[in-house]
Design brief:
Blueprint: E1 22-27, E2 34-39, E3 42-48, H1 51-56, E4 59-64, E5 68-72, E6 77-80, E7 89-92, E8 100-101, E9 109-112, E10 124-130, H2 135-141
Parallel strand pairs: 3-10
Antiparallel strand pairs: 1-2, 2-5, 3-4, 4-9, 6-7, 8-9
Amino acid sequence: MALRPREWDSPGDASGACQGLVKHTGGCHCRAVRFEVWASDALHVFDCNCSICVKKQNKHFIVPASHFKLLKGADNLTAYTFNTHRAQHTFCKTCGVQSFYTPRSNPDGYGVAPHCLDEGTVSNVTVETINGKEWEKAVGAHPTIKSMSKP
């Protein structure tokens, strides 16, 4: 597993604030995996109907890699890949929860499960359905998905 905790500099200014973004914290059920992520308090969540997202009920929002920090649990993560092997479906070895992953659409970012965030920092959630059964067509036609992992 290539993902490792890293030194953290918030994507904002010296005070740690990031204009228009808030720091969310979250992790898996057993708390072996913990992370911080800078994102809006109003989340734009994708509900994909591809084969794996349906099985896992994988609803997620996308952030640039620079807005995500793994706090602990790198050694407790494992990954599942299939088909193109671009998406890295990471999950906790202990409890099995996928709290984040590297999406095929945005390999330079992370898809974060909003239901794995700690309470108190999310003001609103907008859910957009994406037709993952026709992945190439859906992602190619989407006006913003590829830019969501750009700082």
